[in-house]
Amino acid sequence: MSEHKGYSPSFKRPAEILRMRRKRARSDTAVSSGRTGCTGQSSSSPMYVRPFSPGPLFTAQNHSGVGTKRRNPFANIENTHSPKKKLIIFNNASGNTEIADSSGIMRTTKHHGDDNSTRREYQGDRALGFKLAEAEKQEHLQVSTQRSVTLFEDDSLFEEEEEDVKSPLLKSPQAIVQTDIPPVCNQYPADWSLKTRVLFTSPLSLSWAEHLKAQEEAQGISQHCRAQFNPVPHSPQDPRSCSELRCAFQQNLVYWQHPSLPWLSLFPRINAERSFSGKSIPWAQDAALQQSLMREWSISLSSLYTLLKSRLCPYFYLCSYQFTVLFRAAGLGSSSITALISPTTRGLREAMKAEGIEFSLPLLEEQRKSKDPQNLTISREDEHKEQEEVCSELNEAANYLTADGEEHDVYNRDEDGSFSWLKEMGVQDKIKKPDSHIIQLQKEGSSVSLDHKPESVICVEGPHTFTLINFFINWKGVVASSGSQAGLPPTLLAPSAFRGATMHTLKGRSVNVRSQMGSSYQNMSSLEITGPVLPSSLLAITTLLQPAQKGNFSAALCTHTPTAVLNINIIKQQVSEGSEELSSCGLHPASIQQLQQPSSLGKTALTHITMSNYSYTWKN
Predict the structure, then answer these.
(1) Mean pLDDT across the chain, nearest whole number?
(2) Are strands 552-559 and 608-612 parallel, antiparallel or unpaired?
């Protein structure tokens, strides 16, 4: 701007002017507080602050003002630059229309003496404010390290905005609208992941769920063992005196586990060395005791699979020190028995291949389908070839010699890409040949990169699940060979009784707390449930809380992270079996219907469930 004719040498940069304006605004506020003290009005009102004030203060009550004019630092800016004019339309107090452009020129349809002159002067300053905002934006683009300040328009003034607010709750309404809105439904999707802790909160008391009477506890356990589901009142007046509700709650806390060691917590098993350290593990150095534990564990695993095949058990979990397996009966997600294993390693996958167990990688297949939607069916042979081709791209720099000395082109995709001309030139011996073990490691790089990741989840279906059971019984890698879990068989968890299992109940504790709701505090009641919370237990407990808490409660869920990927959808076609074929599995019919629905959570798990006015919202 300094190159324009008539430019004032006293012109200051917009950033300096903003600092001067903030300083003068504070001084003007202090002066105006003394002048307006007799009127009883607050000096902090924005009416008495002039961000661009070459003239008197402007108020809604006194248009003439009593302020003293000061020099306008932008007085000579009109002589230097004439940007594109921007029209601004204002309505004055008398109903007349005033139009001002960015140069400060004012046009009024009617004139009303001093009042209009004051308004024209003030609107000129408003137009000047627009110009200052444009100059400031240009300065911010040129100097990235300079502090950015935004001016926004109010009804009568331009005020300065503070620094950028990072919190989404304090941003503009448009930014809040763009955030994800939780879905609202009469039921939430089934979550196949295992929960370590669930915290329920409600404005109504949850103390009815603890300190059960001996008779109520016995009745609940009996109902669980006999798979009886007594009706619960839809709206009990006093849940604490409703024995049906309390018995049903005890019934839904029961689960079955093998092995059972009272002094050890056998769930979770992955990354649980800290919970085993310092505890007595007599089987660590006793081979006979380890064989006895594995023998009993094999019997329990075989019994569970038999129940699963007969549809007397809907599902069960096998929790090892390095992976978790979910076995589901036919009719829950597929027309045949399925097993999901996560996370896996290359050693486990190679061992399963050696035993003839066929499996698929659902997440990798989904990625391939998204890249090539036309090729929807990929055979396992094509999949193996694709893996070899990916690994071979790292080794196409040169050909190497075999043990017989003959030239061997590894993949020979393109004749033009071969290096046979090196032999004709007699320099093939000068090319450094890669070592065989390096080539093998590079070929296996893509498969090893999946280890211990959610994408490594594998799915086994149909009769191969029986082969998988025998594989786990005979494979030594299913038990840790060293560490605090050495010699300890994997944990088996199921909602139904099986051979060698021990009955356990989830632990519940109710506490009254005060929760902050806005600017006030509200009395809330909480119920904490700890232990391996199975999917059917979570569904049944929330079903009981719905009538007991009058349709208003929320739940915070702590997921065992390696099991979150078990929510992937493996349904290739809609299952036609109804819940009647699973009526003897020991679950409530409503829970069976919900577990039969296709999973919509993907690789994630539920973290919050909220019921408000009998409608669910959830987050994952």
Answers:
(1) 74
(2) antiparallel
